[in-house]
Design a protein that fits this description.
This protein has 218 residues and is of the alpha/beta class. The protein is built from 9 helices and 7 strands. It has helices at 2-19, 22-27, 46-58, 81-90, 102-111, 125-128, 148-162, 180-188, 208-217, and strands spanning 33-38, 68-73, 95-99, 117-121, 141-145, 168-173, 194-199. It has a 5-stranded parallel sheet with strand order 2-1-3-4-5, sandwiched between helices. Strands 6-7 form a two-stranded parallel sheet. Helix 1 crosses helix 3. The longest helix is centred in the N-terminal third of the chain and has 18 residues, at 2-19. It is elongated. Mean pLDDT is 77; it is low at 1-6 and 200-206.
Length: 218
Amino acid sequence: MASYIQRRKFLATLGGAVAWPLAARAQQGAMPVIGVLHSASPEISADRLRVFRQGLKAAGYVEGENVAIEYRWAENQLGRLPELAIDLVRRRVGVIAALGSNLSALAAKEAATTIPVVFIVSEDPVRLGLVTSLARPGGNLTGINFLNAELAAKRLELLHELVPTAVRVAVLVNPTTATTTEITAFETWSRPLKALACKSKSFAPAPAARSTRLSQHL
């Protein structure tokens, strides 16, 4: 629950950060346009988008009144992100919010060389190649790091403290979105736990056969 609350705060902050590059457009008289590039679907992201809009409102921008938002959804087809990012650039949006996946940020960086990009990522943005340093990002990108990858091993350590008799733990992983460092952290953790990576590329319930295989391993 604490992690969920923190993420909501980050999204509200991101909404405020996205508003910064819009000031110049607003002074020119035209309604500024925000491009939202998201790896998932609007149904899954409805609550977080609501928080994002609250952050915009706190910064003085209300969708449909003094700012327009162009949404591009990859619907979990991550290979579509580059073309969706290019589409937003063609739309000449004032800023791009890259959400839902590290790949959203990477696609936005590749497509938008001058348009400001504000991202949320789960891995070190310097390691990902998004910015040159945390203190001085440089270029046209800035954003928030949830530190998910760095905390992966810590989660296993806490789990071991809670259930010291456990010797195996199953880790549900989407290989198309999980970061390399996150997976490596699980696989190389030195505590006496064996992490079994159960990979799935969709949010749909796992087939019965896969659930049976998982039960056999555990």
